[in-house]
Structure formats: C-alpha cells, structure tokens
Amino acid sequence: MEQERILVVDDDEGLLHLLRMRLSALGFSVTPCTTGSDALVAARQETFDIAITDLRLRAEDGLVLTEELLQIQPGLPVIILTAHGSIPNAVDAMQRGAFGYLTKPFEDKELKATIDKALIQLRMTREIQRLKSLVKELYGLENVIARSPAMQRLFQQVAQIADSDASVLLTGETGTGKEVLARILHANSRRSKGPFVALNCAAISESLFESELFGHIRGAFTNAMTAKRGLFQSANGGTLFLDEIAEMPLPMQVKLLRAVQEREVREVGADYMTKVDVRIITATNKNLTECVKLGTFRHDLYYRVSVVPLNIPALRERRDDIPLLAQHFLKQSASRANKDVRGFTPAAMHRLMGYPWPGNVRELENAVEKAVVMSRQDMVLPELLPSGGASTDIGMKPLTEAKEEFERSYLRNVLQMTGGNISRAAQFAGRYRADFYKMLKKYGLHPSMLKGRHDLELSEVEDAAEEVKDV
Ligand SMILES: Nc1ncnc2c1ncn2[C@@H]1O[C@H](COP(=O)(O)OP(=O)(O)OP(=O)(O)O)[C@@H](O)[C@H]1O
Ligand SMILES: [Mg+2]
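^ thats the input. predicted complex w/ adenosine-5'-triphosphate below
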C-alpha cells in the first residue's frame, strides 16, 4: 500500500524534527514546514492525506491556516496541536473544520490513535465519493443507446481516444448527446476516479468567468470575503467539460488558452501560479471554424481544444436508433408517471421514424414523455406524437409511406397526361377502371383539378363509381 502523506507545520524546529521522526517511524511520508505560507505552497503542489499544525505559529494562526488548507484540499483532516489545551480553542478549531486536536505534550500512542481515526474518516469520504461517481457513471452508461452504424463508428473512435489526455471537441446539433458523450469519455479514461466538472459557458456572466474558472483568493475584490476554488482546481486529476465553448467571451479565451497550454492557472488576486492536471473536453452546437473566420473565436484556442474533433450525428441521420431510444424513454416516463403504458402502435412508431427531430434526442425524450402522460391506453397512438416533415425527407421514409407518395404523384402525372380521362389513364396504368378510381379516391384526387371540364368529368366519375359498386 502507498505511504500516507502527512503535512506537518510547526514553527518550533526542534518539535518539528521530533514529529517528523515519530511519524516516519510509524510509516508515513512527512512534509515538514515551519510557516503557514510554506504549508500552503506545499498543499497546492501535492495532495496530502492528513495535515498536523500547531495552533500558534510565529506570524500566523493555525486556525486560519486550517481554513486555507481546506480551501485547497477540501475534506483534508487537519489535526491541531495546542500547547495549553484550552477547551474554547479546541471547540473553535472543530467549528472551523479541523478534524481534531492534541494537547502538548502528547504520547506516541495518542498521536497514532488520532491519526488512525483521521485516516478512517478520510478513507470513508473518499470511498463514498468514488462510489457516488461510479454509480452515477454506470447509471448514465447503461442508459446510453447507440445501435445505429453512425453511432457505432463514433463509439469506436471514443474507445480509441478515451484513454489519452488529448483535448476533445464535441460538435453536434442541440440535444444530440454531447454532454452524455463527454461523461462517457471521462468514465472510460484513466481519470475516471477523478472528478468530472462541467461548466456551461453560455450561462455565466463575463465578469464571473475568471474567478469561476480559476478561483480567487480572499480579498481579491470587493465581496470576496472568502477564497474560492476555481473549476480548474476542482477538476484536478479529472476532466473539465466546457460546454457551449463558442459562447466564451474573447478576453476569457486568451486566459483559457494560457491555462490549457501551460497547465497552470493564476487565481484572481494571486501572485503565484497553481499547477493543474486536467483533461479538457469542450462542446458546441455552432460551427467553430466558422466562428474563427468571423473572429468570435480565437484560432490558437481552436487549434488547442480540437486536437480530437468528434461529431455526433443528428438523430435524423441515424433513424435506426429511434425505436430503441423511444422505447427506453417510454419505459422511464411510464414508471415516473406511474402509468401502464407499454409501447407504441405501429402507426405511432411510423410517425416517430418519419419526423425530422430538429431537437434531436432531447426532443424525442420530451415528446415521448408528453405522449405517455396523455395516453389513455397501454399503447401510444400516433395522434399523441409530433407530426410533420414527412415530405421533406423522402429518402429516409418507411417503405409504405414512400410507396404511397410515389403512387400519388404517379396518378397525378398520368391524369395530367391523359387530360383527366379516367379510362385512358387506367389503361395507361394497366389497371381496371374501377381499381383506378379506387386509387384516386384513396389519394383524394379529382380529375376535375386536371382537366378543367368539370361537367364532363363528374359524369365520368359517377360512371366509375357505379362500376365500383358493382365490383
Ligand atoms: N445515446 C443516448 N442514449 C440515451 N439518452 C441520450 C442519448 N443521447 C442523448 N440522450 C439524452 O438526451 C438528452 C440530451 O442530451 P445532452 O444533454 O447530452 O445533449 P447536448 O448535445 O449536450 O445538448 P445541447 O446542445 O442542447 O446542450 C439528455 O437527456 C440525454 O440523457
Ligand atoms: Mg449540452
């Protein structure tokens, strides 16, 4: 097992040396510091499992240091050493986030016992965090549907690059699943145990961008009462997902570029840089090269973030996914609404397959949810689903629909050609007059529209109708 790392802060060099010896003997790796500011520098550079600090440091206060350490490494157990063991101090220490305290002088046994307790707590917090993210990722993954060849190809690419640290740019129309894919990339990378931190660049004001991304120190500006961790620091060891990257204001793009290039950030108000280890995934539904041409997106940043560009096809370009997705959303919605809706009638599925889905998977999800809520029987009927667009995309229609469309225009053409003469048209089409008439009726066609001799044509139609009756 890896050695646990302990940060020890004491301005008394003799005591610091002693502690270092004792802790090393117990098998820990020790980083000794004589001042609080040294300790903060160390905490920014490496992750510790425990910190031990004297309450009274020469120029600093152990409790303030505790708070600052917790800002940098939330959840770090900090043990305070007090010379006098006054109870108010100890209570104050606990309230300010310290894990526990030891009264000087203390025995090795006491020291060991307190450290052991702190380690147990630390392991528990870390395990819970790990399980939480694992459950979340697994839950997300098992619900991802990618049956179509287009998505299969995409997932092959994802498998190839998931393990690298290369920056990925996800493009695709709204609702195609860019965020879903970003999470999949993270979950399949060697950073999967680290955090996945997401920022929607469109939802944040320009003035807050910098402190949001890089954090700020206490007093960096008015209202900055406490220090704040930036998203870069929060994503340390994991993935930072910058959604709607095209919306990032130009001045911020310069700063982001530096962070991405150097892998270090400067907190607002700080005079030092902090190293960060993050993988960057960005997403946009805009054409980013177009934005570069228009001058709203920096060329150098584009080049940095698009090392691996991945495009998620629109739903209408992968209609094979529709039935599975629809059934999946139906199951979810039915259980949420506590309704016994089991599926779609063939005509309803037909409609789902024919609709162009400008809002992609998200629109499908919403449409199915609405249909389930309104459905009065166990199969969803087509009336409950969005319609339209059927004639805009003839290449991708179900066969029956495409056939019907062809027949309709064929009949019109034949009628036009024969000047609306049903007998001749039927003959031309190789059908009996009665059959031909039935077909016209089916498609709501009327020969009068084509020949402009309403009187004659009517009698002809009636004629034909008689024949139909006879059949
Ligand atoms: N392949 C999929 N399988 C199951 N659900 C999916 C799939 N793709 C997307 N979804 C669902 O569709 C919805 C939209 O996905 P997501 O938010 O990832 O899209 P997006 O591309 O980021 O959209 P936007 O551009 O609007 O931000 C989510 O509810 C998501 O769970
Ligand atoms: Mg999104």
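Residues 178-179, 243 surround magnesium ion (ligand 2) (CB under 6 Å).
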